[in-house]
Design brief:
The strands form 3 sheets. Strands 2-3-4-1-5-6-8 form a 7-stranded mixed sheet, sandwiched between helices. It is about 60% helix and about 5% strand. The chain is of the alpha/beta class. Strand 5, helix 3 and strand 6 form a beta-alpha-beta unit. The chain is elongated. The N and C termini lie far apart (about 70 Å). Among the domains are: about 220 residues, P-loop containing nucleotide triphosphate hydrolases (Rossmann fold); about 180 residues, no CATH class.
């Protein structure tokens, strides 16, 4: 029995929803061999279900589509994997074009017609028995959202009931014989496609006409449907509003604004609970665990460090949840369509929206998704500009800095001021991304025009199970990936902050000297903690870089957090939590501890409005993610572009932070 099953289909056919139904939470993401295009792989019994990127036909034009085409075409005996083909029950004639191409490869297949509820609602009648007979393979009608009919698909997989369809000629199979995809298939394709990849001609057009004729005849005998589908008609009416140049844009901005309001409004209570819990847990560890150094390591090093990132789980989960709703309803595609005219002013097409919006979650998959852009100049511009988008790793940094300088007040009695500030940071990141892309396109001119075709999915109610499942998996991935790095850095920072190259007697002498010269507001315990940290290994690292960052309003402690976060931005919060908690039992919460921090020898707060805004701008513009640098290197095939990108973003971040602090201080 074959171990792998390929899940194949056009975009917007509910393929990922069926994948989730079959695999549940037993899934993971990885890259296809030799490329950075992401694939999903999940377990169903003893089978691996591989969810291939959606494609229209085997005549692929984008890199994502080409990856799927390669997997399908190279899927040959003796280890041939069956194909579970997903088609929309509302758009069968178009979906079956790809089905017919795969059928030519003599692959065992089964056809799953999705959206059974919408098929019924639109009074479409499908004779499954006749369709199965004419195609020569199993056919199922399911609702992947509710799970109706999916049990039959599970039974098919368990019984290995896939069959080779007999309805189509083997024209493609002959063209891609033993010479393989690169040497035989792709050159013939390129002979039949114009230079702009927009017009298929010659033998290919005759092949398509033949396929459409066969498909049309099959469906004419097996499917009955009204001339105008009810759901399509309703969607067209909604699109008159949502895609209107003025009203559609205003609605989009309002939706985006409400998303960021919700991130602060609904996350406040769980964040306060998590913050307090980890603060109390850390204090318990310090006072209970023996020997003392171990309790200090676990409490002030590991627990406080992890608490610095886990506190933001509510905000990150809310972000993924709300974006999941927009995707599930079909509205996210409307954002792409609506943005096309705006993006043209920056030299981009609507295809750039997908990686840019994906960059709000993480730059790494966003940069990978730029492979769907077939214009190399535009693709490079998006790769270099996407890291300016406000990714989820920036969210913890923004959240804590905004909480330090903005009150809990509301604007007009309704809108949370912190939410307004966060919305502003996201808009700033988006603007910088567009400007960066425009600059790249201007300096790297090309005569080749980009082509972009977008199929708008039907409007649907949110699929809540999938929304919550995706929210869980994405949040878990963020926390696990970030947690590993933060745990390592927390231990290293605790060691560097807890030990000194100096002797105990030297440290005690400095502590006594500082207590003698202390200001009334400082306690002896605070002075002892601050002095030990100042003369620790991390203190000397911070002092070394302090001259370069002092004009930005940062001291050596902030410098350590800044330096360490170049591996990953989210480390910043955990580092501050560790640094400002070492040897301290005064404040149990992160924000409270930072608010209480004073400039040594004064009563002035360390984290002033000028300093926090300077930090916000630095983190908005600097490329502090080594994983992103590595992906850019891999996608561009050279260290030239990531080096230019990293240097340019660092210079922009430094100058913006410098200007902000000097003007506001």
């Amino acid at each position: 029995m074959p171990n792998n099953i390929l899940l194949v289909g056009n975009p917007n056919t509910g393929k990922s929803t069926l994948f989730n139904q079959l695999t549940g939470l037993r899934q993971k993401t990885a890259n296809f061999e030799g490329v950075t295009v992401e694939k999903k792989k999940g377990k169903f019994g003893n089978h691996n279900i591989i969810d291939l990127p959606g494609l229209k036909s085997l005549w692929s034009v984008t890199l994502d589509e080409e990856v799927s085409a390669r997997e399908i075409i190279h899927n040959k005996k003796p280890d041939q994997s069956p194909v579970l083909f997903i088609a929309s029950g509302l758009n069968l004639e178009e979906n079956l074009l790809l089905f017919s191409q795969i059928a030519d490869l003599q692959v065992p297949m089964a056809l799953v017609l999705n959206y059974k509820d919408e098929v019924t609602k639109n009074k479409i009648q499908i004779n499954l028995t006749d369709l199965k007979s004419k195609l020569g393979c199993p056919v199922f009608l399911v609702n992947s959202r509710s799970g109706e009919g999916v049990d039959l698909v599970r039974a098919l997989i368990k019984s290995d009931g896939f069959k080779i369809p007999s309805a189509f000629a083997r024209s493609y199979y002959d063209k891609v014989s033993d010479k393989g995809f690169e040497n035989n298939y792709r050159p013939k394709l390129m002979q039949w496609v114009d230079s702009d990849n927009s017009v298929i001609k010659g033998d290919a057009i005759q092949d398509l006409e033949k396929r459409h004729l066969i498909i049309h005849n099959i469906l004419q005998d097996t499917v009955r449907q009204p001339k105008e589908l009810q759901q399509v008609s309703r969607g067209e009416k909604l699109d008159k509003v949502f895609l209107h140049p003025l009203w559609g844009t205003l609605i989009f901005l309002v939706i985006l604004f409400l998303v960021f309001q919700a991130i602060f409004t609904f996350a406040t209570y769980p964040m306060d609970w998590i913050d307090g819990f980890f603060g109390n847990l850390a204090n318990w560890a310090v006072s209970t665990i023996q020997p003392t150094w171990l309790g200090d390591l676990i409490g002030n090093g590991i627990i406080k460090g992890l608490g610095g990132i886990l506190i933001f789980i509510p905000q990150i989960a809310i972000l993924f949840f709300l974006f999941g709703i927009l995707e599930s309803t079909g509205y996210m595609s409307r954002i792409s369509f609506l943005s096309d005219n705006l993006l043209k002013r920056f030299g981009l097409s609507g295809s750039a929206v997908v990686p840019l919006v994906s960059g709000l979650a993480c730059s790494i998959p966003a940069i990978m998704s730029a492979r769907a852009i077939n214009n190399e100049q535009e693709r490079l511009a998006i790769i270099l500009a996407t890291p300016f988008m406000t990714c989820s790793a920036r969210l913890p940094v923004y959240a804590i800095l905004i909480a330090l300088i903005f009150p809990e007040d509301t604007f007009l009695g309704i809108f949370n001021i912190k939410g307004l500030a966060l919305f502003g940071m996201y808009m700033l990141g988006t603007l910088m991304s567009l400007l960066a892309a425009w600059i790249v396109i201007k300096f790297k001119s090309s005569d080749k025009k980009s082509m972009w075709i977008l199929e708008l999915p039907l409007y649907r109610r949110p699929h809540w199970k999938r929304v919550f499942q995706d929210m869980y998996l994405k949040t878990k991935s963020f926390v696990v990936d970030a947690g590993k790095v933060i745990l390592l850095f927390s231990i290293i920072l605790w060691f560097l902050s807890s030990f000194s190259p100096h002797s105990e007697s030297y440290l005690q002498e400095k502590i006594t000297e500082n207590i003698t010269n202390k200001i009334p507001e400082e306690s002896a315990a605070e002075i002892e903690s601050s002095t030990n940290l100042q003369y620790s290994y991390s203190g000397y690292i911070g002092k070394f870089i302090e001259p370069a960052i002092a004009p930005l309003g940062y001291d050596w402690k902030i410098g350590i957090a800044l330096f360490s976060s170049f591996a990953a931005r989210e480390i910043f919060v955990g580092t501050l939590s560790t640094l400002y908690s070492v040897g301290s039992e005064e404040e149990s919460t992160i924000i409270g501890r930072l608010k209480a921090e004073r400039i040594p020898g004064t009563t002035s707060p360390r984290f002033t409005i000028a300093t926090c805004i300077s930090l916000l701008l630095f983190y908005a513009f600097a490329l502090q993610c080594m994983s992103t640098v590595a992906i850019v290197r891999r996608e561009t095939g050279s260290w030239k572009w990531p080096a230019i990108q990293f240097t340019a973003m660092l210079i922009i971040a430094y100058l913006a932070a410098l200007a902000a602090f000097q003007l506001l201080n």
